[in-house]
Amino acid sequence: MKIYIVKSTSPYETLAYENLIMEDPSITGDVLVLYQHANAIIIGNNQNAYEEINREYVRDHKIVLARRKSGGGAVYHDLGNLNFSFISDKSDDNSYVKFLRPIINFLNSLGLESEFHGRNDIHANGCKISGNAQYISGKRIVSHGTLLFDVDMTILSKALNPNKIKFESKGIKSIRSRVANINDLLPKKMTVDEFKDTLVKYFVENENCTLEEIPYEKYAERFEELRSLFSSEKWIYDRSANFTYTKTEKFPGGLVTVYGTIENSIIKDIIFAGDFLSKKDIRDVEPLFKGIRYDEKSVREVLTKIDIENYFGTLTEDEIVKIILG
């Protein structure tokens, strides 16, 4: 496995490099990319930017907002956060457990009893220390996540604006009450740079990895194109249009909001938003619903043409019908 460390702390640039490494045909096999962000919120591909953040707080504290390609929820990053992306060929086993097992083993080697938890998290001492998401592009899969090492929890809790339904369904009072910093749980404290170096050393010695340099010059032209995409208002805010009706519901597979426009019992427009863990871009299938009748038979006919697991995560056909039709 190759390990690459991105030098930039801009989310627009790290997202671009992740994409470039993933689509580079000369880079085969498994890859681990490590990176950090300075004061940023990264929202999931399916989320409405306006609903996920405290806009006034984000503006006043000059927090950068970015949208990633994977599903899942919004996360706050600062330089006390270490992020990782596993890039691999698709296989019969693309589970989160498969990709996170080496990370969990590394954390355990530091004396931190950690474990896989829920749909896509790592927990330690009953608290979340890592959230993860995935997306598929061609024959490759990206499974990326956070490691909350020494993040400013005050900013994290004030900058994000999660839907109350999500917390109420889990009996949780706030973001801050369910997350923890790894450094506070370690038997011996260290800096985030020491933590990163220790992780690299562990993977080199235990996971047959080699540390290599990103081919920055090779990527220069395409990099500018991708950086412009990820930093554009259209990419960041395009899930935030106005519609005639909105419905939100929490399912085991995640929070889902449907924004739609219905005229004369015909679906004129529809967007699916939320933190459900899609692996492919939901925008690809939304047009299939446009122009059909607003009834169960028509909606189910469309759903038979869709790979529900890749586009809606663990949501079921019945749950999707329910959120669309009420």
UniProtKB/TrEMBL annotation:
InterPro entries: aa-tRNA-synth_II/BPL/LPL (IPR045864), BPL_LPL_catalytic (IPR004143), Lipoate_protein_ligase_C (IPR019491), LipoylTrfase_LipoateP_Ligase (IPR004562). It comes from the Bacteria. Residues 26-211 form the BPL/LPL catalytic domain. SUPFAM superfamilies: Class II aaRS and biotin synthetases, SufE/NifU. One of its GO terms (biological process) is protein lipoylation. GO terms for cellular component: cytoplasm. Pathway: Protein modification; protein lipoylation via exogenous pathway; protein N(6)-(lipoyl)lysine from lipoate: step 1/2; Protein modification; protein lipoylation via exogenous pathway; protein N(6)-(lipoyl)lysine from lipoate: step 2/2. Keywords: ATP-binding, Ligase, Nucleotide-binding. It catalyses: L-lysyl-[lipoyl-carrier protein] + (R)-lipoate + ATP = N(6)-[(R)-lipoyl]-L-lysyl-[lipoyl-carrier protein] + AMP + diphosphate + H(+). Transmembrane segments: none annotated. Its EC number is 6.3.1.20. CDD domains: LplA (cd16443). One of its GO terms (molecular function) is lipoate-protein ligase activity. This is lipoate--protein ligase.
